[in-house]
Amino acid sequence: MIGYIIFICSMAMAVICISYDSMARAKGWSVGEILSKDASLPKIAAFITALWVLGKSFMTFYWWSPILILVAGWILGFVLTMMLRKNVQFIGILGIFPALVLTILYISEQKPFGMLHKLFS
């Protein structure tokens, strides 16, 4: 269960970072300089995170897990964006890097933090 939570939250952070720029411009919200660039570091990390989440969930869980995680992450990212409006860009920028690290570290439900499992147990 912790794996699904990590992957859904990681996908939500990726969706926020990738889609905030176009959504904010359409709504008239301010866009920070980092997310206004097409090839900024958070957007590249978000793209890598999204692909990593989909691939790792396919290998770790059932074949249909990437579909569930993509839909749930997209909905969570959209809900957070609508609730927090212009403040969600800070959460996305700061949250994408821990999300990427947690996604890479995840091995299984028994060792959700990979080699760092002994530190958190």
Descriptive notes:
This protein has 121 residues and is an all-alpha fold. The chain has one domain. It is built from six helices and no strands. Helix 1 packs antiparallel against helix 3 and helix 3 packs across helix 5. The chain is elongated, with a radius of gyration of 15 Å.
Q: Would you summarize the structure shown here?
A:
The protein is mainly α and 121 residues long. 76% of the residues lie in helices and 0% in strands. The chain has one domain (2-15, 37-120).
Topology:
Blueprint: H1 2-27, H2 33-36, H3 41-60, H4 65-84, H5 88-105, H6 117-120
The level of helicity is: over 70%
Q: What assembly state would you assign to the polypeptide chains in this entry?
A: single chain
**Uncertain spans:** none
The rounded distance between the terminal residues' Cα atoms is 17 Å
Instruction: Supply the helix-strand structural class.
Output: mainly alpha
Q: State the order of secondary-structure elements, H for helix, E for strand.
A: HHHHHH
Compute the CA-based radius of gyration: 15 Å
Which short descriptors sum up this protein?
121 residues; mainly alpha
